[in-house]
């Protein structure tokens, strides 16, 4: 039964990109767990809690991405070795400062956002509205989290751009 109203062979490029996103999210999740366990210093309480919130969110998204792949009638990637081979988010040591951790997370966000855009482009090509809706919400959420982390990390002398309205 084809409940998707999309030819299965058309969905393969979407599934490939979703599996790549799944791999990236697993690597991101582990980076957050690492930082949650290893944060030290005067920002410990704030960042320990923030990292936990973020990895819980990532864990939920991992499950939703895998379920979307299953909805598209394919099997999600499910081996750590495949995640390491497919993903590009790099592993980290726990011996980093709070600012270095935030910088690494923002770099991972950039990778995730780029992959999400790729997923949306592939889904748009075949009219996969369900995937577009799911990933579009992820983009909005991750951009907001990135903005907040960046705001935490910028110095007092850094300025935001000003838009002039005429």
What secondary-structure arrangement, pairings included, does this model have?
Elements: H1 8-38, H2 44-71, H3 80-86, H4 98-126, H5 129-153
Using brief descriptors, characterize the structure shown.
about 70% helix; about 0% strand
Description:
The structure is a single chain. This protein is mainly α and 166 residues long. It is 72% helix and 0% strand. Helix 1 (8-38) runs antiparallel to helix 4. The longest helix has 31 residues, at 8-38. The chain is globular. The relative contact order is 0.16.
List the total number of helices: 5
Total count of strands:
0
- List the secondary-structure elements in sequence, H or E: HHHHH
What is the radius of gyration?
Answer: 18 Å
> On the 0-100 scale, what is the average pLDDT?
94
Distance between the first and last residues' Cα: 56 Å
The largest β sheet comes out as:
none
Query: Globular, elongated, flat, extended or rod-shaped: what is the shape?
Result: globular
Helix proportion range: over 70%
Uncertain residue segments? none
* Helical/strand content category: mainly alpha
Our estimate of the beta-strand percent is under 5%
């Amino acid at each position: 039964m084809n409940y998707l109203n999309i030819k299965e062979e058309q969905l393969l490029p979407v599934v490939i990109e979703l599996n790549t996103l799944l791999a990236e999210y697993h690597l991101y999740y582990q980076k957050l767990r690492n930082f949650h366990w290893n944060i030290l210093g005067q920002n410990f309480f704030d960042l320990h809690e923030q990292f936990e919130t973020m990895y819980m969110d990532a864990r939920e998204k991992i499950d939703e991405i895998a379920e979307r792949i299953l909805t598209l009638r394919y099997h999600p990637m499910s081996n750590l070795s495949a995640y390491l081979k497919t993903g590009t988010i790099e592993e980290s040591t726990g011996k980093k400062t709070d600012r270095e951790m935030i910088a690494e997370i923002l770099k991972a966000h950039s990778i995730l956002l780029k992959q999400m855009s790729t997923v949306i482009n592939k889904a748009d090509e075949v009219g996969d509205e369900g995937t577009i809706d799911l990933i579009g919400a992820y983009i909005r959420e991750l951009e907001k989290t990135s903005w907040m982390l960046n705001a935490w990390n910028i110095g007092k002398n850094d300025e935001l751009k000003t838009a002039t309205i005429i």
